[in-house]
Specification:
alpha+beta; Porin; 4 domains; 11 strands; 451 residues; 8-stranded antiparallel beta barrel; 3-stranded mixed sheet
Amino acid sequence: MKNLKLIALLFLLTGVAQAQTSDNPWLISAGINGIGLQSDFTGGDNALIKDNYKTMSLGVPSLSVYRSVFGGLSLGAQFSMNNIKSESGIADAKFSSVDFALKYGFSRDNKFSPYLKAGVGRSSIDRVDTNSFNAASSATDNYFAGAGVSVKLGDRFSAFVETSYRSSLDNPEGNLLQSTLGVSFGLGSGDADKDGISDKKDKCPDVPGLKEFEGCPDTDEDGIPDNLDGCPEEAGPEENNGCPDTDGDGVLDKDDACVDVVGLVELNGCPDTDADGIIDSEDECPEEAGDAENKGCPWPDTDSDGVADKDDACPEEAGTAEGNGCPDTPKDLLDKMNVIGSNIMFAAESSKLMGKKVLAAIGEIKRVLDENPNAKIIIEGHASSDGSTQYNEALSLRRAESVQAKLIELGADSSRIEVKSFGESMPIDGDDSRQSRAKNRRVEFKSMLLN
């Protein structure tokens, strides 16, 4: 008996209690109980007269174990011992009970949780022979119902107070009120990271965290838990998903190639002052639009004709884009070349240069080229419709090439002479007479450019 009382007292003094909650389905309780007779207990040797005993007698222990089975409903067992004190010199009555009970708790996860309980048990009330305590002569079946309230003291501990009304079913038969005050310890869900939040409720069960973030840490202390923070080690605003944007250009630092300088989204946060598509840090001319192939700088245009030197056939002489940077050939020079060229004629189906008149004309063309060292000519070959289209294409090309070859033979620079063929596609004066066909077997000088 004394050992049981010491164990109960130890539970009472050293335990810190928690209410039974959805996170802690097992509830172990210890406390003191008070017994008050509500009527005389009649029948048998252990009959008690209510007026002979104190209104309330305190005793220890009162122990219980409950297991949550569904929602707020729990099933459990409890054991109590007491010594009902006499006020009239009659022997004290020793009391003990073992009960099985159902308990229903309301608002179990809140600070205060009221509950109801009811059950059946076996009690012993013995004042005659203390050595035969809980003998068959003193045991009686009983039922009870009661109510109580539990108050949270921490994440695993609570204090409680309850009162139940008991009625015995056989000798000694009567009614009594039992009140219990104690502490409880909740068991069940673990806390792997030891942050005081049960694993069942902890959204980050393997990492110590904060209660306000349901067990998740906030490493950068920006008010956004790490599990929702795009940059958990760098403080940032909520609208950026917890990531910083130091330069405020709309590109988060983690994606910004130029963190401290306002830039463009399409250039990964880097600026492009001259808007040439090359970021300033890689642009050798950051304030002047240029070409990536020239490291962001504009290509030089020595003659300022709008054609870059790299594409200008006449880089030191202003020209036109159509002329690759060279000035157009004066019309009078072009006319002169074609007047001379009108004497260069060919026999049918031939590309040979024949006759003094033809050779003299080619010599005159050579002289004009010498007088105009910047001139460049294109010799166009033509044919009559005497043969097939494909044949005339090839024949007209050979005619232009024969004139080109003769000019080169006379000393003309080959780089200044190009050839083209037009076959029978460009007759001068129709092609329905022998005289017209003869005129169409010719060369012309077109698209002359100064180079």
